[in-house]
Every structure is written in C-alpha cells, then in structure tokens.
What we know:
Layout: E1 3-12, E2 17-27, E3 32-43, H1 45-63, E4 71-76, H2 79-85, H3 94-107, E5 113-118, H4 125-136
Parallel strand pairs: 1-4, 4-5
Antiparallel strand pairs: 1-2, 2-3
Amino acid sequence: MNSLKIYTDGGARGNPGPAGIGVFVINQQQELIYSESKYIGRATNNEAEYKAFLASLEWLVTYIKSNSIDSVEWFLDSKLVVEQIKRNWKVKEPRMAEFAEQAWSLLSPLNCRYEISHVKRELNKEADALVNKALDAI
C-alpha cells in the first residue's frame, strides 16, 4: 500500500500580517517526499492555514498523476480548517468559503482514501518550522 502523510501549517505575524505556509509530506517509510516553505504576503492566520492546505492539495494532484497512492492522511493544527473542510462546521466568512470551495473541488476527484485530522501544534512541528522559515526570510 502506498500512503502519504501530509502536515500543513499556516501562520501570520500579526493578524493579519506577514504570513507564510509550510507543507511537509512523508511516505509510509517515513521518508521526506516533499516540503514547501513559502511567504504568501499579508494574510490572517486562517487564510494562511487554508492556503497551506490548498498548496498541499495542488501538489498532491500533480504527484498522483505519476505515482500510485492508496491513501493520504492530512494533519493540520487548525481546527477551523479541518472542521470546515469536513463540512462539520458552517463556513460563514466569504473568503473562507472561497478557500473551502477550492479545496472541495480538488478533493472530489481524488481516487484514493483520505482523512483530514486536527492535531495539536506540537505534533505539527515540521510544518510549523517551515512557516517560520518563510517568515524569517522576509
């Protein structure tokens, strides 16, 4: 079975303020497959969290075109993003609704099992470090 674990994080220094995203992907052998650390300009924490998740989805859509994947597990420390993407919470903010719609449209054609889970910040250290790397570079 080919599986991936994807950790994403987004953060802003100030809310809103300078923001960055981090994406960290490992395979079932715990090998690093992909990482991304990117400054995204001025954003809120929630916008940055969504943009990190969307960046991971965009990467995955490209990756699975040439790699067979059976399952994907996402780990985010944003309960808001997790619950909205899973449709457990309503998306009231128009900007967040736009991000959620983008995510749902990228998730719907995936032909593998996937799970999106909320984790505590300390279990998302690699993605958090990538966010800080992006923000420290500006």
